From TrEMBL:
Belongs to the cytochrome P450 family. Gene3D superfamilies: Cytochrome P450. The lineage of its organism: Eukaryota, Fungi, Dikarya, Basidiomycota, Agaricomycotina. This is Cytochrome P450. One of its GO terms (molecular function) is oxidoreductase activity, acting on paired donors, with incorporation or reduction of molecular oxygen. PANTHER family: CYTOCHROME P450, CYTOCHROME P450 12A4, MITOCHONDRIAL-RELATED. Heme binds at C342. It comes from Candolleomyces eurysporus. Pathway: Secondary metabolite biosynthesis; terpenoid biosynthesis. GO terms for cellular component: membrane. Its cofactor is heme. Keywords: Heme, Iron, Membrane, Metal-binding, Monooxygenase, Oxidoreductase, Transmembrane, Transmembrane helix. It is found in: Membrane.
Length: 401
């Protein structure tokens, strides 16, 4: 079974929940909660061949999901610890994991102890997933017997066939489970929330998008990746949102060696000299503005700060094409570039478009009475809480005519 079918299967369950909630008329629903749950279940099924969430009103949250949701907030409480204490501990280099764990236990920090418990839970579940896959792989004589292969199965199958020098150790394969989860959970959910928020603000765009989707459904009810990519207005809505509202607007990277950074145009220094490149020493932390690159008026023109999905339905400005932006996606830095570019950007595209394809056909989304604000602390997150303490995004949902 192709992965696209699993994307749609989860989305159909989400559609069922929204249908039940709107049976009596328009209903205000926390869209962020439901779309995050759907995103996590999609990665559970397509990524690991398991299930964590039935996408229903009554359910007990899976321990892995609970831990994954807590990891970010708890980790942010330890920023100073990570910045000042951890470098000192690493310099000691005892080389004995058990001793580091002992230090962790005696250090007087509730947040640190909570982080330990969270990672223990996630590692335990990841290890069980890995062992189950490893056993299935052994029974299949080096291959999995089922028709559909999730990402973890494909990774483990390829790893088993690799030479000894190219093989990933088991602990690195296990660690990929958390990597895939966070890549699919926060950024994709943020992007989907932003898209539906914008569609709720711009009803004309929502209507035009619904018309395109309904016309497409005459030919294919469950489109594959290429068919979804062939819907120009849907593609424009996604690209324009990711251009103007990247889930992560700024990124920090540390140089691994001395490098010379070329500039796109000469810059005048404080002493009046003009330079065309900057020497960046090894271990320098460099902050890159993904949003700044995506919205540079010199490249995108005077309307760069306007959300205009139709800009992607005609050739882009020559300045954009000739700028040679190093991003892996559509002349944008949203998914970064180079060796640390987002490896799941096509997975994310498929997921977002599948959810939009199903939900916009079935429902109309409108803004609630309360204002939705967006925090920009690392990840762009919506909240209707005036104090912005709780991430949420209520939308008024009704049946689409």
């Amino acid at each position: 079974m192709p992965a696209a079918s699993q994307f749609f299967d989860v989305t159909y369950k989400l559609r069922g929940v929204l249908s039940r909630k709107t049976a009596g008329g328009p209903e205000e629903i926390d869209f962020m909660n439901w779309v995050t749950r759907a995103a996590l279940e999609i990665v559970a099924q397509s990524g690991f061949g398991t299930t964590w969430d039935p996408i229903s009103e009554d359910h007990s949250e899976h321990p892995f999901i609970t831990s994954a949701k807590l990891l970010g907030p708890v980790g942010r409480k330890l920023l100073l610890f990570r910045a000042f204490i951890m470098p000192i501990v690493y310099k000691w280099d005892f080389g004995v994991p058990g001793f580091y764990r002992f230090l962790l236990g005696v250090f007087p920090s509730k947040s640190l102890h909570k982080l330990r418990d969270i990672t223990d839970t996630m590692h335990s579940i990841s290890l069980q997933l890995f062992n189950d896959k490893k056993e299935a792989l052994a029974k299949g004589s080096g291959t999995f017997k089922n028709d559909h292969k999730d990402i973890l199965s494909i990774l483990m199958e390829a790893n088993a066939k690799a030479s000894n020098e190219d093989q990933l150790p088991d602990n690195e394969v296990i660690a990929q489970i958390s990597t895939f989860t966070f890549a699919a959970m926060d950024t994709t959910s943020s992007a989907l929330c932003r898209i539906f928020w914008l569609l709720a603000r711009h009803q004309d765009v929502q209507d035009k998008l619904r018309a395109e989707i309904r016309e497409a459904k005459l030919n294919f009810d469950e489109p594959n990746y290429d068919q979804l990519a062939g819907l120009p207005y849907l593609d424009g809505v996604c690209r324009e949102t990711l251009r103007l509202y990247p889930p992560i607007s700024t990124l920090a990277r540390q140089t691994r060696k001395d490098v010379v950074l070329p500039l796109s145009k000469p810059v005048k220094t404080v002493d009046g000299k003009q330079i065309q490149e900057i020497h960046v020493p090894k271990d320098t932390i460099v902050f890159a503005s993904l949003l700044g690159s995506n919205t540079n008026p010199e490249l995108w023109g005077p309307d760069t700060y306007e959300w205009k999905p139709e800009r992607w339905m005609s050739p882009l400005p020559d300045a954009v094409v000739e700028a040679r932006i190093p991003g892996v996606y559509s002349h944008l830095m949203t998914f970064i570039g180079g060796g640390r570019a987002c490896i799941g950007f096509k997975f994310s595209q498929m997921e977002m478009k599948a959810i939009i394809y199903v939900l916009i056909d079935a429902f109309k989304f409108s803004l609630p009475k309360q204002e939705i604000l967006w925090t920009m602390g690392g990840l762009s997150t919506p909240s209707a809480d005036p104090n912005q303490l709780k991430p949420n995004m209520p939308l008024v949902v009704s049946r689409a005519e």
